[in-house]
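Entry 12.
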Amino acid sequence: MLETHLKSPVTRRRLCASPAAEHLDAFADWLRQQGYTPAYVDWSLRSLAAWTDWMITARYEAPDFLQAFDACALAVREERRTPYSRGPNRHSIAAAAVFIRFLQQSGKLPPPVTPPSPSDRWPVLGEFRSWMRDHRGLSTTTLDLYGGILPGLLDSIGDDPKTYSPESLRAFVQERARPHGVHFARCIVVAVRAFVRFLGATGKCPAGMEHAIPCFASWQLSSVPKFLAAEDVERIIQSCGDYGFGLRDKPVLLLLARLGLRASEVAQLKFTDIDWRNGSIAVCGKGRRHETLPLPQEVGDAILLYLNQGRPSLKVPQVFITVRPPFRALTRASVTHIVRSALSRTGIKAPINGAHVLRHSAATTMLRQGATLAGVGAILRHRSPMTTAHYAKVDFGLLSEIAQPWPEVSSC
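Predicted 3D structure (tokens):
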């Protein structure tokens, strides 16, 4: 009954006289089943009442929920509203969006129309994605990166690989990379080369055409790793409180800062990956390589505290989930957002505004504490020692001691 979810009798009367009246009890029960608190359900129904009042004023009926939502959202964006006055606002639109999602999931409204994906428009992209996953072991993150580049290639030079030429491929790469820096420009080259290599391997275009795409100039080991000082890392970790968000964010930050995990690896961590008896953790990294790392006591204690006191009840294999309903497993972007929130909370200006700065910081901290490059490479799971050698330049004091003076030269 609506009385159990909404305290205000005036608001109940407004809702019961609205076009949404017949769906309200089921909607309130659905919110509770999704994990929303009673306070949120009450707030959501009160916010929904402002939208349904607007529907009555604008003469919208029950079958017109979608049209009423779009029209009301447009009115809220365009019309200036006096604070604390009656009428729909952004909270009403948010509550209406949840209400419409409920109607769509329960079959009362048609499901949302999603635009065709690039794989639907160009089936060869779907074949490429499957081929790269099965034969090259690429992760979903890398495939999504390629998926943001390759549709532009097919849109630019066509979807018939037999007509591709080295000149057209090079022209696309140069034009696509023009607005970006060298790092993303190199990603464009790698994506196009991988796609052309797939086309050659499957007989859709002449083999070896990927060699016609030169890479952008970039000198190995020319830059200095971007990292945070050890005291700043500790400030970030200690900024997590003892409430829901803090209980979850602290083990996430510790996995990034102590073990140097990537954001996607933290998001994909499952209960079965943690060996509590032996104090180890299994990580599935790049190329779907499975490796085992030691689980520090500090990290294990934070995970256990989160599981016992902070994790909502949700039957998914992933360890970390959202704090607010609807509950779902974290994504790579969610982990990045946790790091950005911690940086903003502590007022730290980071050279990289994302989770990878803690991976760099973990490597530099280990080196400064006396770890060898080989040991750091083992923890970070680098395939090549040259990748780990990038961190050999972080001790600027030691470098200044061994730096040789520039030899004197005579002026011209």
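Annotation: The two ends are 93 Å apart (CA to CA). Residues 255 and 261 are 6 Å apart (CA to CA).
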